Amino acid sequence: MKKFLFSILCVLTGLLVGAIILKLSGISPLEAYKIMWMGAFSKPSYWAYIIIRSTPLILTGLSVAFAFQTGLFNIGTEGQFIIGSLSAAYFGYILHFNPWIQIPLVLGLSIFFSSLYGGLAGFMKARFGVHEVISTIMLNWIALYFSNYIVMIEGFHKPNTETSEYINPSTSITFLENWKGSDSGISWLSQHPTLNEFMKPSVNAGILLALISVLLIWILLKKTTFGFKLKAVGLSPEAARYAGINVNKKMSQSMMIAGGLSGLAGATQVMGVSKNIAILATHEGYGFDGIAVSLIGSNVPMGSMIAGFFLGTLKYAGQKIQSALEAPSEVIGIMIGAIIFFIAVPLLFERPINQLMKILEKK
């Protein structure tokens, strides 16, 4: 309860900071927030876009939260996300199977390679004492340039573009993709306008995979001996080692699971939304946003899910004030930064939260 109140206060304070910035820019905060609210919830298509935006954030946030729970700081979510995206794009293009085989196979390969990539940081810490923050930052850049290199390989590179070839249709996880464009689909959806508008964006099975992942990680951490050992290593490596737990092995396993979650985020983004990958000049940002999601969600699975939806909504709705009011798009970034800042300085809210908890206990 205390962590939940703390996150709420940080979010409200961040929104207040955003309101001040808007006011200083000569824009009414109330009008801006009203446009954001309407731009997020007034149409079914907006709900769909929020789900699409939130899916990778939930998974990368879950990846960071899981590593936190086991005493590790996974800064490498961005690189793991890129490896997952690259794997999905490459294997989704070169493999040709029935969708019932193709989809789980491509997902499995994406998770496998991204988990190996994440586990590399855990292995380097366990074997050589290299701090995971340093190694994962370097691995992020390696993943970026490795992805750019693979995209330009002949046979995978789309001629006269800076992108890869599109994945095979049997790899797509977009809901009813072919049916929506068929005569029967168009006819049926025209009779159901709300569902028709909701289905226009590329709503895909990624959100289901994200929610299942949240549940599985919660069960793993709370209900299994394996999860207990991982948390024990995070709380006190020396005590865990004294209790007979293989600390080095658990560090590698933890980073492998975290890497697999980030890779799943990248795979669902390719298989459900973009259908290919492009040469990147800089990181896409989903992994780094996952750190914000984890912090806002108090580094727990369910909190990451809620924070992922919140951040996805904020990012999508924030675009609306730029076009409607010519407000600076940086305001949303300032809000998110302010929220993270206040989370990082808990003493600011410790006293008011303690007072509120006392009042609630008396009632």
List the helices and strands and how they pair.
Blueprint lengths: L1 H23 L4 H13 L2 H26 L7 H18 L4 H30 L3 H20 L25 H4 L2 H8 L2 H7 L6 H18 L1 H11 L1 H6 L4 H28 L11 H11 L4 H25 L4 H15 L2 H16 L1
* β-sheet strand percentage: under 5%
Task: Output the radius of gyration.
Answer: 22 Å
Which architecture name does CATH use? Orthogonal Bundle
Low-confidence stretches: none
- Distance N terminus to C terminus? 15 Å
Number of helices: 17
Biggest β-sheet description: none
Helix amount: over 70%
Instruction: Tell me, rounded to a whole number, the average pLDDT.
Output: 89
Return the domain count: 1
- Kindly name the structural category: mainly alpha
Number of strands: 0
**Shape from CA axes?**
globular
Q: Return the string of H and E elements.
A: HHHHHHHHHHHHHHHHH
CATH class: Mainly Alpha
CATH fold description: ABC transporter involved in vitamin B12 uptake, BtuC
Characterization of the model:
This protein has 363 residues and is mainly α. The chain has a single domain (55-317), classed as Orthogonal Bundle (ABC transporter involved in vitamin B12 uptake, BtuC), CATH 1.10.3470. It is 77% helix and 0% strand. The chain has 17 helices and no strands. It has helices at 2-24, 29-41, 44-69, 77-94, 99-128, 132-151, 177-180, 183-190, 193-199, 206-223, 225-235, 237-242, 247-274, 286-296, 301-325, 330-344, 347-362. Helix 1 (2-24) crosses helix 17 (347-362) and helix 10 runs antiparallel to helix 13. The protein is globular, with a radius of gyration of 22 Å. The model has no long low-confidence stretch (mean pLDDT 89).
